[in-house]
Structures are given as C-alpha cells and as structure tokens.
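Hallway conversation turned thread

IA: we were arguing at lunch whether anyone had actually written out Universal stress protein end to end. Turns out nobody had. So, for the record, here is the sequence (290 residues) and right after it the structure tokens. Reply here if something looks off.
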Amino acid sequence: MTGPITAGVDGTDESLAALAWAAREAVRRDTALRVVHAWKHRPDTAPEVADRDAQRAWVGDAVERAVATVTERHPGLAVTTDVLEGHPVQTLLSAAADAELLVLGSRGHGPVVGFLLGSVGQQVIAEAVCPVVLVRAGDKPSSEVAGHEIVVGQQGEPEDSAAALRFAFETAAARGASVRVVRAWSLPPVFAYSPGSLKLLDEAGGLEPFEKKALDDAVRPWRERFPDVHVVEHIEMGSAGQVLLSVAGRAQLMVVGRRAHRTAVGARIGSVAHGVLHHADCPVAVVPHD
C-alpha cells in the first residue's frame, strides 16, 4: 500500500508553501495527505499560554487553520493532522517512515550559505528513508506549467541513480511533464586510468561518447517503463552541482540522489545535493539510494 504524502508544518511561510505543494502532489498522485507538526511544551511563555494543555490547543488551532486552506482548495483530498510532542527531527523521521514522500519548507537565499537549510532540515534529509522535498516560500502552482521540466541528476552506474530516476519519471508521469536527465563529467587525472578503463574508453570512441552511452544505459529502463514521458538526455562537462544549477531555470522540480555521510557530528548529505538545495529556486527532491 502506498503511504501518504506527509508535510511538516511549523507556521512559517516556507512550511505553508510546502503544505500547498504537498496537497497538489497528493491530488496528482491520488493519495492521502498527512500534516505533521512537532511541538515542545514551553513553560517560560506568557502565563495565559504556559499551561501544557493550553499550548497544545493553541498549536492545534494554528495547524488546523493552515490545513483549512488546502481542504478548501482540494475538497476531495483526504487529510489527516497530527500534532505530536517531541523533538522535530525524531518526529519528522518517524513520520517519514510511513510516507511516500516528506515535504518541508526551506528558507530562501541568505548571506551565509551553510545556514540556509537549517540543522533540522539537514538531519531529516540525511536520515529519512523516503524522498524529501524542500519547498521555498513563494512557490506557486504556476511553476508547474507545461515547458517546465523535471530535472534529475544521474551519475555512476545505472543502479547508482535508479531511485532518483524512478522518482523523477513517476513525478513527470503524474504531471504530464518532460524529464531532463543530466550527467556531468570531467577529465579524470592521468593516474586514474587503468588498462581496463582505457580499453572501455577506446571502444566507446572517447570520453564524451563513453559518458553518453553510460547515460543512455541508465535511462533506457525508465524510457521503456514510462513511454509517454518525453526525455531529454543532457551531457555536459563540469561539476555535477554547477551543471544541474545551470538548467535549474527551466525546472519545476530538481531531483538529486542522496549519499549521506556519517561524521562525528552526525549525518551529512553529499556536496551535490547540498549545493542544489541551497541555490536552486525551484523545489528540490532528495531521494535516498535504494
């Protein structure tokens, strides 16, 4: 059974934009919408709302008002609401375990790049078992018009990007959109060549034809599975993040794979996903590898 599309809300403009995006996507995919808000009792607030029950009621009312906006726009959409006491990261990760995808708000551009995403969003993206979509405040349905593509990054072997490609093609099929699959490549250092790799390159006719064949091999199964989805295969020399961002202007959604790294201070997402999340104006989906 397909899980719901889950939106995490906290009252900010970003989370309200994420809620609206999640509702539209739930309608397209003919699935339910779950709205989750994580809260913690704050006894140090004003006396009239310091009581736990009073705070819980106040938070619940605020969430219900936000949900009312999407139920008015989408009267046939099945919506459930959960106001859960607990730490935001653990609460959202628990919600993601049963979700088809999790949708969160993302702050806009700022002077300090490393602080745009926030620690909660970064931890959730790095550890969630389902795709996580980040939506900026001001995102509009008009961005989902014909001519705006689903852009997805592909790298490595076909299996390395299979989850991201599947998500991109499923989303495109639901929207009637086209998919632009982007593979960036660069000249490897001389010492990286081995006799085996040199033989493969020679058989392919050079580096660029080799990369084109690698992309075609990765995309072919998804072309066959989604024959009605128009596909553009995009090969370009450069860093993956820069190449993806160079085509972001035509994207209604950017899709990148997630290869999380464990460090002494917790999980961190890869540099490509990190760069796209911070600089792309459109919503970005980060998809964990299978």
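OS: looked through it. The CA atoms of residues 131 and 287 lie 4 Å apart.
IA: good, adding that to the notes. The domain at 144-290 is CATH 3.40.50.12370 (Rossmann fold).
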